Amino acid sequence: MEKTVNQKAWFLVLPVLLLVAFSAVIPLMTVVNYSVQDTFGNNQFFWAGLEWFEEMLRSERMWDALGRQLMFSGIILAIEIPLGIFVALNMPKSGFWSSFCLVLMSLPLLIPWNVVGTIWQIFGRVDIGLLGYTLDALGINYNYTQDILAAWVTIIVMDVWHWTSLVALLAFAGLKSIPDAYYQAAKIDQASRWKVFRFIELPKMMGVLMIAILLRFMDSFMIYTEPFVVTGGGPGNATTLLSIDLVKMALGQFDLGPAAAFSIMYFLVILLISWVFYTVMTNLEKREG
């Protein structure tokens, strides 16, 4: 007996599809339009073809920003994923303190990005900031507006403070899904804590960890507000990540054609690396299963 499929459900999805088309596809096509044209003002556009893409591929400025961006995202993932797992493993699994920890871990995620940048901008100042004043009192030369290392440490610590909670909460959700029978069997077998983590907890967390890695990579690769508020891309161009460089090109210099080509290439890089992450993590999950 053949199963009848009710296609009326598409009418419920249609408003969402239209909203996505309006908010994503149409602006993207506008960017594509700018990327293949040149203008001398007065809304007069001239066909430029792939000229802006070729210019961006030859631009040392873009490659330098890409290198800084990859380094930032790599450092963020290397810190936040293990730290989030460690926090989740040490959180209470039930009771009042479990709820308390969950609420506490959620607080940084509720703070708007521009507020996070402002908090750390003030926090790191030597004259009025607790961090800057304390380090200066200890004799440590700390100035994120003039020292490259201090600027990088500041934006990395700021991001770790802001987003490690997300990884911890996702890892905690994965741990909560593990049946108690697994732990009881490991206890009977006298398995060590490392073996419990390696063969029980980590495989069960792989699904949520894949989501955590993808979310953290995409967000760190597109980060703009927090480092811009804190350092403005400085000192010099030391913290000028891809997003900051793109905004400077589009709004500061008003080079719409190169900026449009830059943004499309930026989007494709994010899409490509996210696909690689997803493919690798999915294969690892299948292999573990």
TrEMBL record:
Main location: membrane
Localization in the cell: Cell membrane
Family matches, as InterPro entries: MetI-like, MetI-like_sf, Sugar_ABC_transporter
Transmembrane segments: 12-36, 70-89, 101-123, 149-175, 196-218, 259-280
Entry membrane topology: Multi-pass membrane protein
Keyword DNA damage annotated: no
Pfam families, per the entry: BPD_transp_1
Keyword set includes Nucleotidyltransferase: no
Domain ABC transmembrane type-1: 66-277
Gene3D superfamilies cross-referenced by the UniProt entry: MetI-like (1.10.3720.10)
Keywords of the record: Membrane, Transmembrane, Transmembrane helix, Transport
Protein family (similarity comment): Belongs to the binding-protein-dependent transport system permease family.
Protein name: ABC transporter permease
Species, as recorded: Aliiroseovarius zhejiangensis
